[in-house]
Write a structure and sequence with these properties.
With 202 residues, this protein is of the alpha/beta class. The chain has seven helices and ten strands. It has helices spanning 15-24, 43-52, 68-76, 91-100, 114-118, 164-168, 189-200; strands at 6-10, 28-32, 58-63, 82-85, 105-110, 127-131, 153-155, 174-177, 182-183, 186-187.
Length: 202
């Protein structure tokens, strides 16, 4: 791995989570707007949390088949800095979104095999996000199948303190963690700080 990967803590859904993020200062914090997620927050909550968040931390909005009007509104208002698509959004959807915003677009894909991922390198998305299943499973896929990709990618799915060192050996742009820094379904301050420091070599 040539560089230390960036780190994203996803599923921020409580005020105290913002306090933990401000202390740890990962590169990204993820706000989930997908209806089916237990970590879903509203646009109003996201706006409030953004005002509380350290300005050095960039925000990513996570969406599943959302209207582009909703996404562009959150981008325009400065609530989110980047867009993560976790649904059935196709290349036409991504290109239409890229036509109206300069914000980075991350397309999440279920990792099945490396050839499948290689076929997605021509996507209009700025980044891929390699996950296990539809996301939010807390389970890792077989990272040993990942080979060199030209398109930068986020590594997600089952990353936690027990396997973060292995995750860092993958040449990813960013490591994406949610349930791996939770205790009893809620973000855990100590786990967040420990994981961010491990990634950064502190």
């Amino acid at each position: 791995m040539s560089d230390v990967p960036k780190i994203k803590i996803c599923g921020i859904c409580r005020e105290q989570d913002i306090d933990f993020i401000n202390e740890a200062k990962p590169d990204y914090a993820g706000f989930i707007f997908a209806e089916e997620s237990r970590r879903k927050i509203s646009g109003a909550q996201a706006r409030e949390y953004r005002t509380m968040l350290d300005t050095s931390v960039r925000t990513v909005g996570v969406f599943v088949n959302a209207s582009q009007t909703m996404i562009t509104s959150l981008l325009r208002d400065g609530v989110i800095d980047a867009v993560q698509l976790h649904g059935n959004e196709d290349e036409d959807y991504i290109r239409a979104l890229k036509a109206v915003t300069d914000a980075p677009v991350i397309k999440a894909v279920r990792f099945e095999d490396f050839e499948q991922i290689k076929g997605l390198e021509c996507s209009a998305a700025d980044y891929l996000l390699l996950d296990n299943g539809s996301g939010g499973t807390g389970m890792a896929f077989d990272w040993s199948q990942i080979c060199k990709l030209k398109k930068p990618f986020f590594l997600a799915g089952g990353v936690n303190l027990s396997n973060i060192d292995e995750a860092m050996r993958i040449d990813s742009y960013c490591i994406d963690v949610s349930s791996g820094v939770e205790t009893d379904g809620c973000k855990d301050r100590k786990k967040i700080i420990t994981l961010v420091n491990r990634v950064r070599g502190a």
